[in-house]
């Protein structure tokens, strides 16, 4: 793949938000749209979500995650969206420069007129919720277990306790039961369910998996491998209540204790983050406080349904395309005037093509060195001569003027810049 020097829209992440943003940006008129994905395939987290429940609002169908993702992959690629897979973005600047690396292209610097941040979110780990005890194998996040079972073909364990009633945790309770594991129970520190009620019914109630509210894991027990967890009831301040402890034998503890929007790159780009959601502040077009940088999906806040992530991606993609088109139009309208051979500077520094179409524009300049013979003062668009004026001589102390008239508009309409030079006649 041959990278372009500048793209209209670059999207970081190819989950449901990123794919939707790419499709919407193309349909809105963006010329060059690039998706950068750190994984080897498009689709993001959807590839490991083999359960149904996706697309009910968007497609009016009940689809598994990979099928939902494939529809948007097909559409994005058919529209001409470019992709960089297996590529890690290292940094983004407020000026919309992206620094990335991959084993295929090495270190890359990519410029964008608009950027859509669609990095999704990550799971909280044991260290972030500070569960005491030993550090044996067998403690995983629910998403890690989902990847192992659904994509890699590995079972995390045979007797499982799940901490947290988030959606991934409840879905994995059912999935592990399908695969022959025994899910001893689901513990939730809050006095209410933190995931969708439909997952509680379909994943826990339908399979007789106990849910204990206001309970947590007080400590992990085991040396090489988890042997048990000590559960306890908690008070209103989430402190374990003495005397309520219970040892639950198990070989695996899965954590479904919350998601964190993935915003390290957002911070580097100067994006302001909401301390409550952990995601960027955005307007109704999902543009952040940094002009030209948009954000969509779980990187902004954690959604209940993938369909809603997609809808946010649509809006961000449209906004990004509009911004890029406006900037591209402005960039093509205003072109720099460059000081060429024996020219010290030119004023104005930038030419508005639209103004030239309506009236003449006076270019004034000074030379670097005197030339005491007849000369041409020439205006060039690369190798094409736009205008020239003869002078008997030029001197640094005397200003030189060249006038561009409306009849020159056709010669500069497609120019990216103009260069003014002095040459002997």
Plain-language structure description:
The mean pLDDT is 95. This protein is an alpha/beta fold. The strands form 6 sheets. Strands 1, 2, 3, 4, 5, 6 and 17 form a 7-stranded mixed sheet that branches. Strands 8-15-9-10-11 form a 5-stranded parallel sheet. Strands 20-18-25-22-23 form a 5-stranded mixed sheet. The protein has 10 helices and 25 strands.
Concise account of the structure shown:
By secondary structure, the protein is α/β, with parallel strands linked by helices. It is about 25% helix and about 30% strand.
Under CATH, the topology of the largest domain can be stated as FAD/NAD(P)-binding domain
CATH class of the largest domain: Alpha Beta
Q: How many β-strands, per DSSP? A: 25
Terminal residue distance:
47 Å
CATH H-level homologous superfamily name of the largest domain: FAD/NAD(P)-binding domain
Low-confidence stretches: none
SS-derived structural category: alpha/beta
Major beta sheet summary:
7 strands, mixed
Domain count: the total is 3
- Calculate the mean pLDDT score and round it: 95
Proper CATH architecture of the largest domain: 3-Layer(bba) Sandwich
